[in-house]
């Protein structure tokens, strides 16, 4: 495939942070255009220990031809097949003694069996794609059979495999792991507003978007005030016209992704260190995983971990970096520098 140097090409924002971290270490970088399948993609490239790497939009490849004539393989390639299959990954981790939500896996051709799974759960249910990312088509806190069917249909319309699992309760976190340890912790508060006693939920959501527009953080874009929020509120007995009391926090979404309006806070000392230890141990149980964004729910993050107060949700082989540079609140973490340090250690010893 044609690969051309293009020093004037614009890098994505993730890559600019990797470029800055590389240059701070005296590692030269080159911007290249890769033409493949009729598309032109821009990559940041650099060498460490004689190995060329390509980076773009969270994906890090080690250059080298393979049987499909790609640029190279993801540095997490050996781990990617397992972690991409959410259900199998959770089964694997459960067998190693880690806490995960109990769930069931269904193929799109077996929708009747998926519908019938409602009876197998005693509490709220979450429906999501078995291979999905960025919170797309994730429906948490389902308590009614009719809504379960609707959620299953929506996932099945876009994805071939469906994961139905218990909807666990707690705070949503992403732990950024760079072998051999966790280096950053992001707390994602699902989209919410706080009442003032006189403004409607719609007015509060519009004010929240106005604040986001003013701050211009790339990780906190304005969120759509539309069907998804209305449906979420309806399932909780509310509408956009409701006026919450002063100081009352009302959630507009159940997912902690930035695209759904979540706020990102960077924590460290606030979170009990036992959770860092658990995430690091879990990552080491996934062969070939060098770094990852690990999502989990913690019931009370200030107390030590037990077998029943946290749940590992998923692992990401190409984790986004930006939430650790542009938090709503908290001290940024230079995760790109941590990744480069990892590459220097790993590839000098292989």
Helix content: 25-40%
Beta-strand content estimate = 25-35%
Mean pLDDT equals 93
**What's the order of the H and E elements?**
EHEEEEEHHEHEEHEEEEHHEEHEEH
Which strands sit side by side, in order, in the main sheet? 1-2-3-4-5-6
Q: What's the story with the biggest beta sheet?
A: 6 strands, antiparallel
Structural class category: alpha+beta
Oligomeric assembly: single chain
Radius of gyration based on Cα positions: 21 Å
Low-confidence stretches: none
CA-CA gap between termini: 27 Å
Q: Estimate the global geometry from the Cα principal axes.
A: globular
- Helices, by number, come to 9
Q: Can you characterise this structure?
A:
This protein is of the alpha+beta class and 350 residues long. Among the domains are: 72 residues, no CATH class; 66 residues, Dna Ligase, domain 1 (2-Layer Sandwich); 63 residues, no CATH class. Helix content is 28%, strand content 28%. The protein contains 9 helices and 17 strands. A 6-stranded antiparallel beta sheet has the order 1-2-3-4-5-6. A 5-stranded antiparallel beta sheet has the order 15-12-11-16-17. It is globular and about 60 Å long.
Summed up, what is this model?
By secondary structure, the protein is an alpha+beta fold.
